[in-house]
Each structure stands twice: as structure tokens, then as C-alpha cells.
Design goal:
The protein is of the alpha/beta class and about 280 residues long. It is about 30% helix and about 10% strand. β3 and β4 form a beta hairpin. α6 packs across α8. The chain is globular and about 65 Å long. The structure holds zinc ion.
Length: about 280
């Protein structure tokens, strides 16, 4: 399974409150699995890492404490990443990578989540050049985490789930690209595009949504890098969006730099996000 990770900027992470210490891959020897504890409010999408970020920041941490988070759709979100010191298991945050799967209580992990977590483990072994010890959080400290089903899976050796779907009789067409999983709220973007230009330089209204659109405009070559992740839909971002509208053939008021549903959807289709109208 190839591994694809949604970056912190793509899921709308807030800046670190103190950048986590760097840990070289040579010091990683263990791989920990976690769950949410109680049932999480969200089990798929960018709301999963955002909620964990909110909780961990409330605890006074720099941001998400896990190395990675895996949702029930099997999407992997970047937390501290491969080389950031974790905040997930005291005494093991340097030696151990920590991966949280977005379930809690009696919930069972989906096959997609297990496949993604296993792919992360394999990638970690490849990157470090060694076989990392497979652990549940409770192997490091007294806790219920990662719950019964995940702990049993860890103890069984983290097997990749067996794919039970019958083989298709003729080969399925190759999808052009995976369905976008990052969601941008149109009303948030419009509100930011109308309000941010009037704020002091860098003022933000809906920074997380705006950062996703900024990254897309940057990728289109329409927005200078210096403005590409500030989360502020200021006059320079409005001008960049206007250039996107013009690229699509809009003119006049239809290319005024305030995003509309059609143009934003086209940007998302090209740059990997979907739009909630
Ligand atoms: Zn845990």
C-alpha cells in the first residue's frame, strides 16, 4: 500500500506553540498505537486532527501530540511527523512514534484504518532501517489505551486486513486521482474574503479554510509564497483569486476575487479539496 499523508497545512493545523524538538530517525525504536479514549466526536475528515489539536493545546502542549492520526476512512494526518518529539507516552516520546486511530469506547477500527496504520508501520521500519517494536500505549504506561480491539490487533502483530471483496471480472478503470477528503466551507471563505482585506495586515476570519485555498492558489502559481499560508484572505489573496476566476474565463464582477461556488469547486477538484456550500 502506498502511503499518502495529509500535511499539517492541508488539514489546517494552527502554528506550533513552541516547535517540538527534532528527533533523528536513528533514535526511533518503537511504534505505539493509541485510541481516543471516549468515543471521538468525529471519525473521519479534517475535524479529527483539528479536535485532537484543540484538546492537546488545551493541555498546554505545542499542538497534536501524536506523530500521526488515522481516521476511519484510512486517511493519515500529519501530527509531529517522523522527526518531531511526541507527546503521547511519557518516557517513550523520543524512542517511540505514536499513531492514534480515531475510535474510542467500544468502537471497532475499520479495515481501512488498520491498513493505513500498518502501512505507516512498514514505512517507519523502512525509514529507520530497523524492525520497530509494536506496542499499544498500555505497554508503555498504565492506561486503557488503545482499547480492546486495537490492543488485540497490536498483539497479533498488526496484520494488514484481508481484503474480502471479490476480484472484479474485468479490470476496474484506474481512477484519475483519489476523491478529495479535505473540505472547505464556502461561506467561511466568502466571509474571510469580504472581511480580511479591511483588517490590519494578516488579520484572519477563518484561517483554517483560507489556508487550504491559499495553498491551492500558490500551487496554481497565482499567489506569492510569502502570502501562501498566513490564513488571511487579504487584498493580495483577493487579487490572486481574481486571477483564478479570469483563468476560468470570468470577467468583470464575476472575476472580483470573491470566491463563488463554481470557481472554488474547480480549484478544489484540481488541488485536492471539496467544497461545502
Ligand atoms: Zn494512548
Amino acid at each position: 500500500m502506498s502511503i499518502s499523508i495529509v500535511s499539517r497545512s492541508a488539514w489546517g493545523a494552527q502554528p506550533w506553540k513552541g516547535v517540538p524538538a527534532h528527533v533523528p530517525l536513528s533514535r526511533r525504536t518503537e511504534f505505539f498505537i493509541h485510541y481516543h479514549g471516549g468515543e471521538p466526536p468525529h471519525s473521519t475528515g479534517v475535524r479529527v486532527p483539528r479536535e485532537i489539536e484543540r484538546i492537546h493545546r488545551q493541555q498546554g502542549w505545542a499542538g497534536v501530540g501524536y506523530s500521526f492520526i488515522v481516521d476511519q476512512a484510512g486517511t493519515i494526518y500529519e501530527g509531529r511527523g517522523w522527526t518531531g518529539q511526541g507527546a503521547h507516552c511519557p518516557g517513550h516520546n523520543v524512542s517511540g512514534l505514536g499513531v492514534q486511530i480515531a475510535i474510542g469506547g467500544d468502537q471497532k477500527p475499520s479495515d481501512k484504518a488498520l491498513a493505513a496504520a500498518r502501512a505507516l508501520y512498514d514505512e517507519a521500519c523502512k525509514k529507520t532501517g530497523r524492525t520497530l517494536a509494536k506496542r499499544g500505549h498500555k505497554d508503555g504506561i498504565a492506561t486503557l489505551c488503545p482499547g480492546g480491539p486495537l490492543y488485540a490487533w497490536v498483539k497479533a502483530g498488526m496484520p494488514a486486513p484481508v481484503d474480502n471483496t471479490p476480484a472484479p471480472t474485468k479490470p476496474a478503470p484506474t481512477p484519475v486521482k483519489p476523491a478529495p477528503k479535505v473540505v472547505v466551507d464556502l461561506s467561511n471563505i466568502v466571509a474571510a474574503a469580504k472581511r480580511d482585506p479591511g483588517l490590519r495586515q494578516g488579520g484572519t476570519t477563518h484561517a483554517a479554510d483560507v489556508q487550504i485555498v491559499e495553498a491551492a492558489l500558490r500551487a496554481e502559481g497565482l499567489l506569492p509564497a510569502a502570502y501562501a499560508s498566513d490564513g488571511s484572505f487579504g487584498s493580495i489573496t483577493v487579487a490572486a483569486y481574481s486571477r483564478w476566476q479570469q483563468k476560468l474565463g470570468y470577467t468583470g464582477a464575476a472575476a472580483n476575487g470573491i470566491p463563488g461556488l463554481a470557481s472554488l469547486k474547480k480549484l478544489g477538484a484540481k488541488r485536492g479539496f471539496s467544497v461545502k456550500a
